[in-house]
Every structure is written in C-alpha cells, then in structure tokens.
Amino acid sequence: MADRFQILKVNGSANVNAAFDAETGGGGGSAANAEQPPNGPASGPAHENHLQPKATDGGESRRTSRLSFRGFGQFLRKSDAERKFSLAQLTKETLPRLDNYRISMRNLKRPSIGELQGEVDQTINIPDAAEPEPTGGHIKLGWIVGVLIPCLLNIWGVMLFLRLSWVVAEAGILWALIIIAVSSVVCVITTLSLSAISTNGEVKGGGVYFIISRSLGPEFGASVGVVFAFANAVSASMNTIGFCESLNLLLKSNGLIIVDNGINDIRIVGSVTILVLILICCVGMEWETKAQNFLIFTIILAIINFLIGSAIGPRGDEQQISRGFVGFSWSTFKDNFGSDYRYAEGVNHNFFSVFAIFFPSVTGIQAGANICGDLKDAGAAIPKGTFWGLLISMTSYVLFVLFAGGAAVRDASGFPEDLVNGTIVPSELPCIQSGNCSWGLFNSYEMMQEMSLWGPLIYAGCFAATLSTALTNLLSVPRLVQALGIDQIYPGLIFFSKPYGKHGEPYRGYVLTFFISTGFLLIGELNLIAPLISTFYLASYALINFCTFHAAFVKPLGWRPTFKYYNAWLSLFGFAMCVAIMFLINYVAAIITFGIIFALYLVVMYRKPDANWGSTTQAQQYKAALMAVHRLQNVSDHVKNYHPQVLVLSGDPKTRPPLVDFGFLLTKNNSLMFVGNIIPVRVGYKNRQNLVKDGQKYLDARKIKAFYNVIDGFSIEDGINAMIKSTGFGKMAPNIVLVGYKPDWNYCRKEEVESYFAILHNAFSQRMGVAVLRLPNGLDFSDLTPKVVMPDNGMGHLNTANGQGFANELLPAANAASELLHIDSNLNLANMDSASPHNSYTIPQEAPLPNMQSCRSYKINNSDAASITYHTKAGSEVPQTVLDEMNIFTRKQPKGTIDVFWLYDDGGLTILLPYIISMRSHWQNCKLRVFTMCHGKDEEQEEKSMASLLTKFRIKYSELVMLKGVQDQPRHDTMLKHKRLIEPFRRSPRNEFGITDDELHSMAEKTQRQLRIHELVVKHSSNATLVVMSLPMPRKEAISAPLYMSWLEMLTSDIKCPVVLARGNQTPVLTLYS
C-alpha cells in the first residue's frame, strides 16, 4: 500500500526511528515502548545504535510495554524479513490524499498543528449544521451523453428547420455565412473561456451560475444566474412556439384545424406541450436521456434527408419548381449571394435584426455546464463535448445555408402556370409585381420540407429539434434555481430549491419553470421573443468571458486550469464583442438586461450573504491593496496628508465602548484604527483566535471599522510595547496611542502606577502621539454583560463564549495583571475571556435572579445589520445615565462647546483632534473655543498672532481666550488637595517607593503651574461638552510616576464632561501652505 511505512531489520534489531516516539506520545501502539529482551540489555557494537528501544522501569510501564509489543513479538523474531508497519501506528502525520482537500461530507480531517504539538484542545465544539446525507445513487453521464448530445440538441433548435431559410433570403448567402461566423466566433471564444473555468477544479451543480459565482463572487454569479435561468425558461417557450408553428403548418397542409390554425392553436398546444415536457423532466435523468437519444437520431435523419433532397433537386417536378425549389444552379447561387432586406412582421430588417433572430440557435454551448453536477468528469467532459458539438452544428448550418441558397429562389407563386420553360423567371412572376408571393425562401417556412427527400421526415426533425431544445432548457432551469436556493442568495428562491426523491429532483423548481415558460408562450410570436433571449444569453456569455479574463489577469495561485488553450486578452475581446452585439441588436433590450443584472447585484450586495468561495474578485482586492501599499511605501510623508492612525488600548472592546467610540470618532472614513488587548497569561492559539473573532464581531456590529488584535503571554507593559512596535506595516501603522485614564492610581499597587507611567513614556519614545481619555464616572463597563446579535445571514455559527457575553470563570477573580489594568487604559483581566493552556471555555447557564421577575436589558445599537444588548449581571435595571455615558460619543450632542487648552506646541495634534471631532455630524453643534497661554509681555499682540495662526491653519473657532495668571500662586485649597493626594506616596523609612523632598522642591514650579491650569480649566469650562488639553510630558529621568499621576489627576478632576489629554510627537500635523 502507498500509505504504509517500512521498517527494516538492521544488525539483528528493529531500527525504529526515535522521531516517531514523541509523535505517538507513548501510546499503547508506540514503538517507543519496546520491551527489553529477556537476556538484558543488548551489548556490543551491533546493539549500540542510539535508536535502540530502551528498557522501561516499573511494573505498570512493563505491563504497558508488553501490551504494546505483544503483537510484535513473533514479528521481531522473524529473520531477514521486512518489517512493515502502518504509518498510522507510528505517527500522527497523514499523507497527501484527495479526501483531505474535500469540502464535502467525505472530507477527512488532517491533524492540526496543535494536535501534532500535543496541545490540549481548548475550544468549544459547536457543531455545524449537518449536511444532508445522500439518499441514493445518482446517475453520472459521460461527455457524449452529458455534453455533446445536449449541446447539439440545444443548438439544433427551432431556427434550423423554420428560420434558417428565411435568414438566407434576408441576408443572402454571404451575410448569412458572416452571421454564422460571428456567432461561431462568440461561441468559440466563450467555449474556450468556459473550458478554462470548468477545468480549474471540480464543477458542481448549477452550471453557469456556479461557474460565475465561484469566479467573480456571489454578486455577479447570482444576478447572472437568475437572468440565465430566466433566458432558458423563455428559450423553452420559443422552441415550443416553433414546434407549434410547424404543427400548424402540417395540419394546414392536410386541411385540419384546432381553433383558428393560428396564435390560439399555438397557445393551446404549447401549454400542453410544456406540461408534458415538464413531466418527462420530473421522471428523472434516465427517461430524459432516453428521450434525448431518440430525438438526436431523428434530427440527424432529417438533416441527411434535407441535404440529399437538395442535392438531387426537383427532378422535373413543376409543382416543386413553382414553389421555389429549382435545384442547384450558378444563377440561383448568384442571385441569392447578396442581401435583400425587406419589411416583415412589422420590422424593417437589417443585418443586426436578422442576427438577433438567428443567434439563439447557437446558444446551446452551455448545455453541458448546466448539468455539470450530473457529469462523471465535468472538467474533461465540458471542453471536449462542447467543442465537438459546436463544430458539428456550425458545419451543419453552413451546409444548410449553401444548399438552401444554391437550390431555391427567394420568391415563388406556387403555380406551375407561372413557369417559363419549366423554370422561374423573377421578372415574369405576377406575384412579385403585386407583392403577394406565398412561396420561396422569403415567404414560406415550409421550404425545408419542399427541398427534402421526404417531407414528413423534416416535420419529424423539426418536432425533435424544437422539443429537444425545450426539454434541455426545462431540465436546466430548475437546477439553476436549486443551486441559487441552496446557496441562500435570494430568499424567494429557497422555497423552490427543496430536493425530492433519491436523486434530489427540484420538483418545486419545475412548477416555477412551467409557469414562466407558459407565460411567455402565450405571446405566441417567435420573432418577438428571439431578440430578448439573444440579449440575455449574450450577457451571460459576456460575463463568462470576463470571468476567465479576470482570473487570468489577476493570476491567483488557485488559478490552475488543466485546459491550456485559452488567452486572457482573447476572453476580454469576447466580452467586448458580446456587449457590442447586444447594443447593436437592440440597445433598449440591452439596457433593460443590464438594469436587471444591476438590480439583482444590488440585492446581493445589500443582503451580504455569508458566501466565501475564493473568487477572483477577492484576489483582485488583495492584489490592488498590496500594490497600493507598496506604492504608498515609496511616497514620502507630507504634513498635508497626515492622518491620525489610532491604536486604542481598550482591552476587550465590549467592556469599554466609550474609549473605542472615541477612537473611531477620530478615524471614521478617514484613517486606520487598531484595537489592542493584552492578556498577561497564555491562552493558546484557538482561544486567542476566538477572542479576536469575538472582538471583531463586536466592532462590526457597532459598525466600527477597525482591526482587533490580542497579544497573550506578556506583561502589560511588555505587551503594549510589542503592540506599538508591531501593529500595522509600512505607512499603515498607528501614530497615536489612545488609552483610558487610570482612576485607581492612588490606591493600587505601586507596580501598576509605574507600569502605567512607563506605557506613556515608552509611547513617546516610539515617536507616537498620545491621548488619554477620562470620563467623570470612568470608562469601565465590565459590570454589564454584552450580547452581540448578528442577523440571520448564515453567520449564526459564530456563537462563541464571548459572543454570548459570558466571562471565563476559570480565571481567578483578580491577579497582579488584572489589578494593574483595572483601569480605563486597558483591560480588567478578571472579566477577560482568557484561559490557561490547560483550561477550556465554558458557557454557564444564567442563574435565576433573586427577587426579580425579569432581567432588564438595553440595546445600545439597533440596526438591520446587527445589535448589541447590554444586560445587568445582577439583574438590576441599567440606569439611563449609565447608558448615556456609554454612548456619549455616538449620540447627537446638543449645542455646546469643545474647549481646547492648547498649552504647548506639540506639532498641532492638540488642536487637530478637537477640530476633527467638531466636523462629525453628531458634534457639529459644538463650537470650538481655544485657550492658550502667553508669555505676559504683550498679551494683545500674542492674541493677534494666535488668531492669525488659527486662521492660516483654516481652523474654525468661535472664541479665542488668552489665559492670564498661569504663573500666579494656586489657591490654598487647591494646594491642600494636591498635598493630600501625594501624601501616601511621600518617601519615608517605611516607604522606599515614593516622592522625595528633593523632587518636590525641584518640580515645585511645574507643579504649581499644573494646579493653576486646573483652576483655570474649572473656571472656564464648567459647562463645556468636551475638554481637550495638552498632556504634560512624562520624563522618567525627571519625575516620578506618583507625582506625574497627581498632575493628571488635578488637571482632569472636578470637570463634569469628558476630558482628553493629548500630545503630539513634536512633528507638525498642520501646515500653513497649500
């Protein structure tokens, strides 16, 4: 066997590679537990191999060893025999096999990296919806029966026997051949494209829809699939009308009539015919295949009958000659060589109108692809069968044109007395003068019967050709509808996709097809339906060609078709050719067709189905993004193109919505935003992926465009430093770090204060801007339990523990890391969904709440896409004030002010951030007020200078205030408050960590300035909606962490609105110049 692993006997002992010991993990079947020989350890050079199995110690180990190798005892004693073990007995590795790459129920799972590394499974096993098991066998067809015959039956349709002679009369032999040639070029190019796509992997049921949707995505595939299914249903109507017309001619020639021998007969007979054909399709593939074999045989006999009859000629039969069948002659060929377009059926015909009527006769090349799910090897059958079908059918059309144009005249009276010397002389025909000729290629659709060897066989061939094409169309439409319904692209089609019986027949789809086809059949005019079908088919062919061009142009690694005879630019030419012909045939119908496709496209775009098929559109997006990033990397930074790219250190974004909302307020529709979460314990790969997926789902539900990432196994300080350095790439990296304020700094452990101070210092060391957000009542809402509810669009399987809003109860309630970041700058690990490497996720059941009849919940985001509901964990009501604080940056703000205290020149970030906020729709009622300091020499001149600067920056503000008295002594109560604040941190014999007297003395002037600024902020901004002020620089070598935190506390305290402390990295983000 190919998957057996071979072990040879070397020097009298089994040479077992020790690399397999770790892989088997010492299991019962492991070669690592080989039992020691009875005579003790082996000695001598022959037994000193390091791969020799070693003796085991302990009774239990020996018993396990004996159990493990009991079956190998006699095997090892075999002399000079090959030792062969199954690979599965020696390793967890698997060999490359087809079943490992399937996406169906037959898929065999290869071991994951975690299993090979021996990791403990840490995930929740949420079973996916089971696929329905096949209820029986399914008939698979070869390339002849499955592709060639359906293609021929589709192409040899109503035009072959009823309209081809009329095409020759209108266009002439030359232009009829050109029409066939143009149609052939379109079909050949489309067939090349179709063959390339269909050989690029397995093609399932759904035909053209499957091919386009898996290549260009569900938007294009679904819209074209609906149009194509509709075109096939209408094509079935057209061919049924052709059958009814030929039947009417046959009845009329025999003096029979049903109602009026006209349109009403067509409607009655056609409705019954479609019903019978639908019943044949419902019976199953076996009966349909048998019917196809009989029909193709009849058509071939009719074609041979026509060719032989035309070659023999009328044989002196004056009745036939008077009807226009004069036999082959050079004069007849010359007369019919050129075009003679006439007015017929209410239309002044030209080349394109005739082309529009003829083109549906070559639209059968997709017949094999329509039932590709029923083919044994679709990748090989579709190219081979389609090309042979195209070659045979086009050859037959060319022969028909030459024979009809060379052996019959355009106009004839049908009266033998009008003949001159046994032949037709057009100038002598009275009917030409009066314009009422009833025979000839122009005037009679029965010329094929007249020219054939035996007329009734032509009727049989016409019946077979029309009915076979209608049957093939009716067979493909329900399967297209079924494929669309199974993929759940359009909800209205899901009902019609239900399979029945052992073969999964779409009976409901057959009913839908019957009503559509019958509705168009009631029109009763073949020439009115044909142009509409032409535009539908041409649109489908255009997108097939575009699919191949797009895939070949983008060249994703998954594009590896086994059919090599295609060219990307030839496919693009085919696409352009199809579109051009559509508009030349009938620009109104073309516009309507593209309008329908666009409307169906918008429906899919709006619904956003959970369909990820690896389309070339996705590959193109990746390639375009990659090229744009590379180009951007080579562009030098310019201050005019500055974008605030924010890294939000929020921890779990569900616990700190205001911090995430504020970050998005700065970056919305303008720049990048990253959300970071640091977990100081290792949680394992799968748990980390679940956390990332859960956080990203929350952001998507809030319609926040951001990238969420989790780093585990590092301390908070080291993790944040790593995240600052590694987040993003090239120019797509953050330049601002946004953290929340730490309100518990004055009673937490000293390590936490030091770490928080170091985070700010290190951010500036990496040349990042820093913003600190503080709310009056804090940012932490981890005491509420959020629940993300996604819409029912196929994404319901994302029900992780985080998605349900449950915390991981396996972690201790608090630890050093959680105490450090029980702050608003990062996360509270006590409520974080993390786990140790040996833990697993659990979803606890909600316990009944004491003294509560129900649990109050509030939605903070209500949209059609998704909603997020916050519940109280204890069952109490969520106060409206809490909800308002949670949504402070997303709700509409009343009239107010954004006060900006631009105290130090940091490059302009302190003034730019509030300006961005004021431009948002929810904050446009808030006007900017700018406060700045002056040197005290010439305050009036400095105010004018600042006003001029803001004007040149194009910063619109309502008021400019120059702060006076910044250097004055703070009030006594302010200084007393600060003294009490830092008192616990004063250094003493019992507290080596703290603020020294020397530090207080050296920083006294700066401390007083911060206290004075606090007083001025409280004085001027007591009624502000938002306050933004310059952040003091955290210098590690100059100031201790407690003293710096006391500055931040004083600057942001006693303010009733959100406060943002911001500082740039001293590089300009604003410019005066255009």
Automatic annotation (TrEMBL):
Top-level lineage group: Eukaryota
Say where the protein is mainly found: membrane
Where is the stretch described as Disordered?
21-64
What the entry lists under Gene3D superfamilies is as follows: Amino acid/polyamine transporter I (1.20.1740.10)
Q: Name one GO cellular component term.
A: membrane
Every copy of the SLC12A transporter C-terminal domain together lies at 656-1074
State the compartments where it is located: Membrane
List, in alphabetical order, the Gene Ontology terms for molecular function in this entry.
sodium:potassium:chloride symporter activity
Q: Which UniProt keywords apply?
A: Membrane, Transmembrane, Transmembrane helix
Q: Which residues form the Amino acid permease/ SLC12A domain?
A: 146-647
Basic and acidic residues bias (residue ranges): 47-63
Q: What InterPro entries does the record point to?
A: AA-permease/SLC12A_dom, SLC12_C, SLC12A_fam
Q: How does it sit in the membrane?
A: Multi-pass membrane protein
Does the keyword Calcium feature in the UniProt annotation? Answer: no
Q: Which GO terms describe its biological process?
A: cell volume homeostasis; chloride ion homeostasis; potassium ion homeostasis; potassium ion import across plasma membrane; sodium ion homeostasis
Q: Pfam families in the record, alphabetically?
A: AA_permease, SLC12
Would the keyword Thylakoid turn up in this protein's UniProt record? no
Query: Which residues span the membrane?
Result: 141-162, 174-197, 268-287, 294-313, 351-373, 385-409, 453-475, 510-530, 536-554, 566-583, 589-606
Give the protein's recorded name: Bumetanide-sensitive sodium-(Potassium)-chloride cotransporter
Q: Write down the species.
A: Drosophila navojoa
